[in-house]
Amino acid sequence: MREIFESELKQVGDDLAEMSRLVESAISRAGTALLTADLQLAQSVIADDHAIDQIERHLDERCVLLLAQQQPVATDLRVVVSALRMSATLERMGDLARHVAQVARGRYPSKAIAPAAEHTFAAMHDAATRVARRTTTLLTTRDLTVAANIERDDDLLDALHQDTFAALLGESWDGTAQETIDITLVGRYYERFGDHGVSIARRVVYLVTGDFAEASAIRSV
Amino acid sequence: MREIFESELKQVGDDLAEMSRLVESAISRAGTALLTADLQLAQSVIADDHAIDQIERHLDERCVLLLAQQQPVATDLRVVVSALRMSATLERMGDLARHVAQVARGRYPSKAIAPAAEHTFAAMHDAATRVARRTTTLLTTRDLTVAANIERDDDLLDALHQDTFAALLGESWDGTAQETIDITLVGRYYERFGDHGVSIARRVVYLVTGDFAEASAIRSV
């Protein structure tokens, strides 16, 4: 029984890591598509999102079967319940990458992001891509210093998000309503992407340390 | 054992209904605060959000204990896992109501929504409030016709969301960047609120019918 459980649990962990790798690829390509008005790249992100959704469904079915057939308790149970939640979060991160790509596609052949905000969105792209890459690393290594770095990138995304509003509300802003809308929405997508990364980081910290307070305080690691 | 399980499961259902009632109150007050620039009402929504978060935590702990101590299978297991997911969704709906209230508070004493879009946001407010009220009804009665009505209100929210963009991109739009930002963000909050209502509706349909295809097709009920 135990061997089957361990093997099933390993598969759950592998699925989460695979989802995270796909999210990493999606957010990275979506940001490049956004910044360079690359229609083909944007379309590839949109088309590939179903693969993330599919792993989520398989992973969830596997977790429910695990609960029914293996009836885990204590730490094992916590791992399975956390996996259910992290898969939902990763699925949502994939959706946000798709939303960024949809904005890029919608404005093609123009760039969606007005020149005045390009620098800020390039930094958001970098930070979000790091969040995704670190999420994959965290899920595969459970190295808690990586969790702290995800929190730091999320702080950076929040600050950059504020910068986008400062740009839109500054006296020199003379963009169109469409440009204002796009900056507002894409900024929000990146900001949420960071939040979701932090949600996963805290769940992993909680799984490793068993301590919710510590999970909320990894910023200070 | 079975009696304890039934009693615990009833408590989980009661907690979900209570969360939904609080969400209903929050989104209703947030919309009124937004449309009438009512600072006190906006602040009450923001202050009350923690109560929703608190029920979510208790509910989740109860579900994990239920899984560990009662080791449910089949339908019982499906009910507990669905409750975990629905509580996360209701918590998020509470956050979105809080975000609407925060925009209202941020623009006080002005109204956040420019006059040209007020009519559309009054309709979004009505539709979102109906979604929340119907979610409470669905969770307490499991009447599937209510689920179909939630889908219809979500369709309406999507259409109204498109109307906001049409207004912002129309020739007659002469609002400030702040007004464009607020309409873009609040429109997005309402649109997501409807999506979450549909997510709960489909979970309940799935629990009642055991059929995912039916759950996705309740629009045609």
Q: Which helices and strands appear, and what pairs or packs with what?
A:
The structure is a homodimer of 221-residue chains.
Chain A lengths: L1 H35 L2 H32 L3 H34 L7 H27 L2 H26 L7 H33 L2 H5 L5
Helix pairs in contact in A: 1-2, 1-3, 1-4, 2-3, 3-6, 4-5, 4-6, 5-6
CATH class identity of chain A? Mainly Alpha
Oligomer: homodimer
Enumerate how many helices of chain A there are, as a single number. 7
- CATH homolog superfamily of chain A: Phosphate transport system protein phou homolog 2, domain 2
Helix content of chain A: over 70%
Average pLDDT of chain A, to the nearest integer? Answer: 94
> Could you say which structural class the secondary elements and strand pairing of chain A correspond to?
mainly alpha
Largest sheet of chain A: none
Give the total of domains of chain A.
1
Please provide the count of β strands of chain A.
0
Uncertain runs of chain A with pLDDT below 50, 5 residues or more?
A: none
Pair with the biggest interface:
A-B, 24 and 24 residues
Indicate the overall shape of chain A: elongated
CATH topology of chain A, what is it called?
Methane Monooxygenase Hydroxylase, Chain G, domain 1
How would you portray this structure in words?
- Chain A is mainly α and about 220 residues long.
- The first copy, chain A, has one domain: Up-down Bundle (Methane Monooxygenase Hydroxylase, Chain G, domain 1), CATH 1.20.58.
- The first copy, chain A, is about 85% helix and about 0% strand.
- Chain A is built from seven helices and no strands.
- Chain A has helices spanning about 1-35, 40-70, 75-105, 115-140, 145-170, 175-210, 210-215.
- The longest helix of chain A is centred in the first third of the chain and has 35 residues, at about 1-35.
- Chain A is elongated and about 65 Å long.
- The mean pLDDT of chain A is about 95.
- The interface between A and B is medium-sized, with 24 and 24 residues.
